[in-house]
Amino acid sequence: RHQQLQQHRRHRQLQRHRQLQHRQLQRHQQLQQHRQLQHRQLQRHRQLQQHRRHRQPQQHRQLQHRQLQRHQQLQQHRQPQQHRQLQHRQLQRHLQHRQLQQHRQLQQHRQHQRHRQPQQHRQLQHRQLQRHRQLQQHRQLQHRQLQRRRQLQHRRQLQHQHLQNRRPHRRRLHQLQAQQRQLLRQARQVQVSLLFKSVLWYLLKFITAYSCSASAPASLGTFNGGSVTNWTRYAYNYTANQTAPMLIFGVDASSDFGIMIDDVSVVSNANSSVQLLNNPSFENSSTLVGWNKWCSSTCTSGIGGTVVSSNCRTIGNCYRSECSGGGSRDYLIQQFSAVIGQSYTISFWFQRVRLTSGSTSAKLYVDII
Question: Whole domain around residue 83: which residue ranges?
Answer without folding.
Answer: 75-174
